[in-house]
Design goal:
With 113 residues, the protein is an alpha+beta fold. Helices cover 25% and strands 28% of the residues. It has three helices and six strands; from the N terminus they run E-E-H-E-E-E-H-H-E. It has helices at residues 26-42, 73-79, 81-84, and strands at 3-7, 17-23, 49-51, 58-62, 66-72, 89-93. The protein has a six-stranded mixed β-sheet with strand order 3-4-5-2-1-6. A hairpin with a 3-residue loop joins strand 4 and strand 5. The longest helix is centred in the N-terminal third of the chain and has 17 residues, at 26-42.
Length: 113
């Protein structure tokens, strides 16, 4: 998952930050969105608005001062918010490295041969 934060304060945008990330499938996009919503909700951060539905290639979670965008790779490339907001300060978070022995497709540990 590729994560980027765009600091939009001072750019004329309606929010302070965009958090952009990508999922590899529609179920993963929904799972990422649900997990963000749940974890922030547990911290008392209230969701103002949600856009997108099951099967969507783009989910949007609006928290007022910041908006989370969860894209498919194709939608992220198509909308290219990083280019559109290129004047914003950009903070990239590299994808975490996969632990040894973790199978890429299933996310489960499989014996290596």
């Amino acid at each position: 998952m590729d994560i980027t934060v765009l600091k939009l304060a001072g750019t004329g945008a309606f929010v302070e930050y965009f958090l952009l990330c990508s999922g590899q499938s529609q179920p993963q996009i929904k799972a990422i969105s649900d997990a963000i919503e749940e974890r922030l909700g547990n911290q008392g951060v209230r969701l103002a608005h949600r856009e997108g539905k099951t099967g969507a290639e783009w989910m949007l979670l609006d928290y007022g001062d910041f908006v989370v965008h969860v894209f498919s790779e194709r939608a992220r490339h198509y909308y290219d918010l990083e280019r559109l907001w290129r004047s914003a300060e950009r903070i990239d978070f590299p994808a975490p490295s996969r632990p040894p022995g973790l199978h890429e497709d299933s996310g489960t540990d499989l014996p290596t041969q």
